[in-house]
Design a protein that fits this description.
Helix content is 13%, strand content 34%. The chain is built from 4 helices and 33 strands. A 4-stranded antiparallel β-sheet has the order 1-30-29-28, with no helix packed on it. Strands 3-4-5-7 form a 4-stranded antiparallel β-sheet, with no helix packed on it. WD repeats lie at residues 76-111. InterPro entries: Coronin, DUF1899, WD40/YVTN_repeat-like_dom_sf, WD40_repeat_dom_sf, WD40_rpt. Keywords: Actin-binding, Coiled coil, Phosphoprotein, Repeat, WD repeat.
Length: 501
């Protein structure tokens, strides 16, 4: 056994768990059994799958409003079944995409003014007809029974990848409502079972995905719809996840063995067929592992139902265990914020939002240093909120560099993980392009023209059913609000009686 300890700047990284007043309480998290992280966040908002009746819904919480949420909260409503996943746009902090069990994708724009109603009194709320929910800018048909995951492209604006129940990953140009709602620009095929997770590489050139068929696949969307590589992955069918390791040609997957042991694999993304470079057996617990990558070369592992968060450092194709954040409160979901939102004065190298019961708890991971100046060795430049490509550029086969920002000055710096410009590939992108802001003026998708009377009749029936469902959802929402108001009044009466005794 070696007597020498491997040097590492992150060996003593410690978790700084937020106090109660900085947490978000009375959060009604979805009880749907579908496997996603349940939560997404940036430095401005937190989106979370909500437990709501009358169709699916999710909530968007402003970061600057911690504390106990009111019983009646403005929700993002527009789906007719449970919301399964949400993703905040990396280039527009107030734009969210949602995936639903109803087979559609929702696009939403969050307006801060809508949260002014949280300050209303009961009389003001009643006078204004109750709490006003958010309406979607557009709904995109996923073409199947379910849309399980949504992931934004890391360098191209308004490009959204969605995993659908028909075993495909579909890429949409969401720059314009009518364009987005017609059909996907690219559909990636080759899966034989449910897609469990997907992630883009650093420049958005290659997409990697895991599936319930126990395979791991990579795709180059501009070069064809079939996978570039396929390899056997974890032996168990339960909950395999995969993430790309920043600007490296490495990926990390988590999953289960045939004997139900939890595992972590390190992959060479240029040669999946050779098998994982590294295999680590974690433990025999049953919770699905959620992996997260930090550009400090650290991977964080959070198991659903676990109280701890483990972290490893990747160095020379070795995954070195650092330590773990321990807690007695099990986590249901977890997400990390983009690095550009970190507090460098506190040497915060990563920040997570953790769902425990009905609470969202911020957790910062800090390096214990007392230096007063900026620590450049632990704060490399972070991806900025500026896209290097438009959706049209991407679907025409162009490649972009990741736009980076200095965490010391906030200024743009030379891009990292750059790739050479590609020759233009065969494009399926539409000619017309506008920005996402055009949703406000064109929120309704233009239906494809048809000449058959049968199709027209079906459309009329579908529209009639859609209106009926919307009316039902509105009625249910009003009943929910009345019920919550009655509960609140009952609590006030009960407290008054107790105080009078």
């Amino acid at each position: 056994m070696s007597r020498f300890v491997r040097p590492s700047k992150y060996r003593h990284v410690y978790p700084n768990v937020a106090k109660k007043e900085a947490c978000y309480e009375n959060v009604k998290v979805s009880n749907n059994a579908w496997d996603t992280n349940l939560i997404s966040a940036n430095g401005t908002y937190i989106s979370i799958n909500w437990n709501a009746s009358g169709g699916g819904a999710f909530a968007v919480l402003p970061i600057h409003r911690p504390g106990k949420l009111p019983d009646i909260y403005p929700l993002c409503r527009g789906h007719t079944a449970a919301v399964l996943d949400t993703a905040l746009n990396p280039f527009e902090d107030n734009v969210v995409a949602s995936a639903s069990d109803d087979g559609t994708i929702g696009l939403w724009k969050i307006e801060d003014c809508n949260y002014d109603q949280l300050e209303w009194s009961d009389k003001e709320r009643e006078r204004n007809g109750g709490v006003k929910d958010f309406e979607p800018l557009a709904r995109i048909s996923g073409g199947g029974r379910k849309v399980g995951q949504v992931v934004w492209h890391p360098t191209a604006s308004n490009v959204l990848a969605a995993a659908t129940a028909d075993h495909m990953v579909k890429l949409f140009d969401v720059s314009h409502a009518s364009t987005a709602c017609s059909s996907p620009s690219i559909a990636l095929r080759g899966f034989t079972d449910t897609i469990q997770s997907l992630d883009w590489d650093w420049s958005g050139t290659t997409l990697i995905a895991t599936s319930r068929d126990r395979k791991i696949r990579t795709f180059d969307p501009r070069q064809g719809e079939r996978p570039v590589q396929i390899a056997d992955s974890h032996g168990g069918i339960k909950g395999a996840r995969v993430i790309w390791c920043g600007d490296k040609d490495r990926a990390i997957s988590t999953g289960f063995s045939k004997m139900s042991d939890r595992q972590m694999f390190l992959w060479d993304t240029k040669n999946l067929a050779s098998g994982p470079l590294k295999q680590i057996t974690l433990d025999a617990s049953s919770g699905i592992i959620m992996p997260f990558w930090s550009d400090n070369n650290i991977v964080f592992l959070a198991g659903k139902g676990d109280g701890n968060i483990r972290y490893y450092e990747l160095e020379k194709d070795e995954l070195h265990y650092l330590t773990e954040s321990k807690s007695s409160e099990p986590q249901r979901g977890l997400t990390f914020v983009p690095r550009r939102f970190l507090n460098t004065e506190e040497n915060e190298i990563a920040k997570a939002y953790k769902i425990t019961g009905t609470t969202i708890q911020p957790v910062s991971f800090c390096v214990p240093r007392k230096a007063e100046s900026f620590q450049s060795d632990i704060f490399p430049p972070a991806p900025s909120n500026v896209a290097s490509l438009t959706a049209r550029d991407f679907f025409e086969g162009k490649r972009g560099k990741r736009m980076m920002v200095s965490l010391e000055t906030g200024e743009r710096v030379q891009s990292s993980g750059s790739v050479p410009e590609a020759t233009v590939a065969k494009s399926t992108a539409p000619e017309a392009q506008t920005c996402l802001g055009d949703f406000a003026s064109n929120p309704t998708p233009t239906p494809i023209a048809t000449t058959t009377a049968t199709a027209k009749d079906l459309k009329k029936q579908i529209e009639k059913l859609r209106r009926a469902v919307e009316e039902r959802d509105t009625q249910i929402r009003h009943l929910e609000q009345e019920n919550e108001t009655l509960k609140t009044n009952q609590e006030k009466v009960r407290e008054a009686l107790l105080n009078s005794l």
